[in-house]
Structures are given as structure tokens and as C-alpha cells.
Amino acid sequence: MRRWLRDIADFFFPRTCRVCGRVLLHHEEFLCMQCMLDMPRTAFDSAPDNAMAQLFYGKVYVERAMAYFYFAKGSDYRRLIHRIKYNGEKECGRYLGMMMAREACTQHFFDGIDFIVPVPLHYFKELKRGYNQSEWIAQGIAQETGIPLCTGELVSRRHRVSQTHKGIYDRYLATREAFELLPDSELVGSHVLIVDDVVTTGATLAACAEALLAGGVRQVSMATLAAAK
Ligand SMILES: [Zn+2]
User: Fold this and answer.
1) Which band of pLDDT confidence, cut at 50, 70 and 90, is reported for residue 178?
2) Cβ contacts of residue 139 below 8 Å, gap of 6+?
3) Domain containing 216: what range?
4) Residue 207 in contact with residue 216, Cβ under 8 Å?
5) Ligand 1 centroid from CA 20, angstroms
6) Tens digit of pLDDT for each residue in 201-226?
7) Ligand 1 centroid distance, CA of 24 (Å)
């Protein structure tokens, strides 16, 4: 947007920081400078044996894994994820995907990755929500890195059981084998980056990775906006 147009828009409809609520300056997007600086970054992109990568040890081989920042219960950054996931703030998801990619590029995190694949939402869930938040985050990463986005080839095969009230093992079982790579996919033989909004137990990401590898993908890496702490 042209600067003067944004200035006029800001005057009538002030944009506010999605974390602290302060009115944004014209060069700030979604988050104020202070909240971008204060973001509890994981620095996983510079640590191959990080806590997220360890979630998959002994389950599925993952080349690289990173989350942009930590979210703790009740933290403002957790509310940020909630806004992206349930309050329609998909553009904010894309913006943070871009910012994450910009920072992780300096660590060569995306080297050798051929395609970016968002974790698919089940059809009915996406219909209800109107969008897939992971796809918007993945779009931001694709935009920044120039790596092509591939949607519609990794598909969700059954409705994922609500994860809110279940134990870790139940959640793992509930999401297992819920994904499938369509036959003759262009992803076969490639290195795929799987993108999701958050990682908690890693069950969903592991199920996606298993499905991709079983379908002929050569290598998988993973990136999420946030990691539970
Ligand atoms: Zn702020």
C-alpha cells in the first residue's frame, strides 16, 4: 500500500499490535517493533538437535525441525496463535511465516528443500473455519524463500479427534495414519518442508511425515510458528 493511503487508513482505523494492543506506526505490520524484539524465539534453526527435533527421535526421520517462538499458557504470544487459528487473522499468519523464513534463511535452514507442504485440515474443518491457518503460514515462507508451495497432494483422510481433552498417547493414536499422499505426486523423490502453526507433542507432524515418506518423498523437514513450552 502507498504510504499516504496507509496514513489515511491508520488515521480512521488505527491498526494495533496483535500482542500488546498498542497502535502501530506506519512502518510496523501486525506486531510492534518492541513485541517483535521481545518475541521468545527458540533459536531452533541454529541448533539441529533442538527439543523439537528430539520429539521425532525413534519415530520418524526428520532432516531439520524448527519453531519460530515459544508459547506458554496465558502468554500474549499464545493469544497471537489463537488469533491466527480461530479469529480469521490469516494475513498475520502469512506475515509471521515470512519473518520466520527471513531469519531462518541466515542459518541456511531451507537449503535443499524442494517443496513446502502445509499440514492439511480435514475438508469439513476447513469449510467451517473458512481457511487453513497452516497454509497461510506456508505461503509466507514460500513468498520469502521462493520455494514452491504444494497443497492438495497430502490429504487428511479422516476427521481429527478434538485434541483438547485427550492424553498424549490418545492424541498420538488419534492422528496416526490420518494423512495420505496422493499417487503420482510431484513430491515423490523430493525434500519436503511440512508447515504447521504449532508443535506440542509432534503427533500431527509425525503422522504427516510418515505419510509423505510412505508415499515416496525422500526427506522431510518441519517448521512451525510456535512450540509449546
Ligand atoms: Zn506490541
Assistant:
1) confident
2) 94, 97, 149
3) 39-228
4) no
5) 4
6) 999 999 999 999 999 999 999 999 99
7) 8
Q: For residue 176, how far is its CA from the centre of ligand 1 (angstroms)?
A: 38
Residue 42 alpha carbon to ligand 1 centre in Å: 19
Residue 185: pLDDT band with limits 50, 70, 90: very high
Averaged pLDDT, 95-106: 97
HSE (side-chain half, CA atoms, 13 Å) at 182:
10
Same domain, 206 and 116: yes
The predicted model scores a pTM of 0.88
CA of 129 to the centre of ligand 1 (A): 26
Say whether both 117 and 23 belong to one domain.
no
Residues 100 and 202 in one domain: yes
162 and 95 in a common domain? yes
Cα 147 to ligand 1 centre (Å): 30
CATH number at residue 216: 3.40.50.2020
Compute the distance between CA of residue 124 and CA of residue 181 in angstroms, rounded to an integer.
19
